[in-house]
Specification:
The protein is α+β, with helices and mostly antiparallel strands and 387 residues long. Helix content is 29%, strand content 17%. It is built from 11 helices and 15 strands. The strands form 4 sheets. It has an 8-stranded antiparallel sheet. The protein has a 3-stranded antiparallel sheet with strand order 5-7-6. A two-stranded antiparallel ribbon has the order 8-9. Strand 8 and strand 9 form a beta hairpin. The protein starts with a strand and ends with a helix.
Length: 387
């Protein structure tokens, strides 16, 4: 369908009870907050909202299409978590085992007791590197994993969280590779995206480049991606200066083709919801038994909480995902988890409501965990769910 919602042409489909949700989605365009975007929601394994609108350019010459994909930054992490959960469900990975069980070289520099769940939950003390790296270095999996294997932790592993903004994906990805012989991007395509019909990539083939919408990067985005401590020796400052995220890198072929499993996933709201719906529904959806209900439920068990050393906010983590705890609830239900991406993309999984939802856009806002655009849409979605 294509409908005029208050002067905004919205494409896709939605159950009529979610008219308020779609109206809020359109309102973001009327406010000038979005250029192009998509939103999707499933409940009980059925898509009830799958909409997109806007353009890939400010001149409004290239429409956002059904198959448009964009870099979703750290919403990619939610897909990396699924890869690890699938391996755990198959009995190939134990989150309470030392990382070195699977990746022996990782035991260097006093890391022999770092556990796999520490990697999942930003608690390994490896949020950055001492050896300077460039953007091009980040495209080299072997170099990044070798540096991380040699790196000494910046704090006692398991004692606190400090957002592993770019390093987390290499760490989880190398564990996946050591177990399966496949990079995380390849494993994800073959074992998750393929069976679930999800149009998502970690490492985009050149054949798909033409449908990538480049992100709009407001002035100051790179400098203001986080309010770091003025002290250059602080964990936060060291984390975000090496590796240093540069939003314009996402426009380059090198970034698109690389596998950076914490940050360079490309997809849209629909593809993220297709991937996360099994987690919302006891492990199975769309005819695919991705994992057992026990494994799916394990995500909601708190593993560590406290004031994050990098994000400077209180957080509670289950297995990878942030949990619905703290001063600003993400859901009216207890068993809900989330994560978001630099610039505004977001993912929410609610096991109590059996709901998965995602927002993906091409206009970046300040912030690493989503912003008011997705927050307001999500708020309306819960209102409409209650009708």
């Amino acid at each position: 369908m294509s409908a005029d919602i208050g002067g905004v042409q919205v494409n896709g489909h939605f159950d009529e009870r979610f008219a308020g949700t779609v109206e809020q989605f359109a309102q973001n365009f009327r406010n000038g907050d979005d250029i192009g975007a998509s939103f999707a929601l499933s409940k009980d394994g059925e898509f009830l909202v799958d909409v997109w609108a806007g353009h890939l350019d400010e001149d409004k010459q290239r429409p956002w299409k059904e198959d448009t994909i964009v870099n979703v930054y750290s919403s990619t992490k939610t897909v990396s978590f699924l890869c690890a959960l699938v391996l755990a469900d198959r009995g190939l990975l134990d989150f309470d085992e030392p990382v070195a069980t699977y990746w022996p070289e990782f035991a260097q520099s006093g890391k022999d007791k770092v556990l796999v769940w520490h990697l999942m939950n930003h608690a390994a003390g490896l949020s950055g590197l001492d050896v300077p790296v460039t953007s091009e270095d980040m495209y080299d999996l072997e170099k990044m994993t070798s540096l991380l294997a040699a790196q000494a932790p910046w704090w006692e592993p398991g004692s606190a969280t400090g957002y592993h903004a770019l390093t987390q994906g290499y760490l989880i990805g190398e564990v996946v590779r050591r177990i399966t012989g496949k990079t995380l991007g390849k494993f994800m395509r073959e074992e998750l995206a393929g069976p679930l019909g999800a149009d998502f990539f970690i490492g985009v083939p050149e054949s798909e480049f033409d449908r990538i919408g480049h992100l709009f990067v407001p002035i100051g985005t790179n400098e203001n991606n986080i309010a770091v401590n003025d002290d250059p020796n602080s964990i936060a400052s060291r984390t975000f200066s090496n590796p240093a995220p540069v939003a314009e890198d996402s426009w380059t072929p090198g970034w698109k083709k690389a596998e950076i499993p914490a940050a360079n996933g490309h997809g849209n709201a629909r593809s993220l919801v297709r991937l996360q719906t099994p987690l919302a529904c006891g492990g199975s959806a769309f005819g695919v038994d991705l994992m057992s209900e026990k494994t799916a439920r394990s995500v909601m068990q708190p593993r560590i909480d406290g004031h994050d050393l990098c994000l400077n906010v209180p957080l509670t983590f289950g297995l990878g995902f942030g949990l619905n705890r703290g001063p600003i609830p993400i859901s009216p239900n207890e068993n809900a988890c989330f994560w978001g991406g630099w610039g505004g993309s977001s993912v929410l999984v609610d096991q109590d409501a059996r709901v998965a939802m995602s927002f993906v856009m091409n206009k970046m806002f300040a912030g690493l965990l989503g912003d008011t655009r997705s927050f307001l849409i999500r708020q309306k979605a819960y209102e409409d769910l209650g009708r």
